[in-house]
């Protein structure tokens, strides 16, 4: 599917919009230990979670073919916040491009 449409197949139940809005925070970090709802990261920081989603280490290839994407994606491939909280000067064009590219993606 990616080769034909440049989109990744996903099943989204509203998660993408919650990640984009900041309601769900993605923590790209290695887990040191889990005890009940307490999660300690390898770097020592601890969190309490209602739910834990384990990811497979998926890496997006967007930065290989989308040039000048630094205002759309962070270095780790997670989308930057949507307008108006991203870089000034990229408004309508970048928001439309981002909406097109991110529709159907589960990033992050």
TrEMBL record:
Keywords of this entry: FAD, Flavoprotein, Monooxygenase, NADP, Oxidoreductase, Pyruvate
Record bears the keyword Oxidoreductase: yes
Enzyme Commission number(s) of this protein: 1.14.13.168
The keyword Magnesium appears for this protein: no
Domain of life: Eukaryota
A single GO molecular function term of this UniProt record: flavin adenine dinucleotide binding
Top-level EC class: oxidoreductase
Cofactor needs: FAD
InterPro entries referenced in this protein's UniProt entry, alphabetically: Auxin_biosynth/cation_transpt
Family: Belongs to the FMO family.
Protein's name according to its UniProt entry: Putative indole-3-pyruvate monooxygenase
Organism: Rosa chinensis
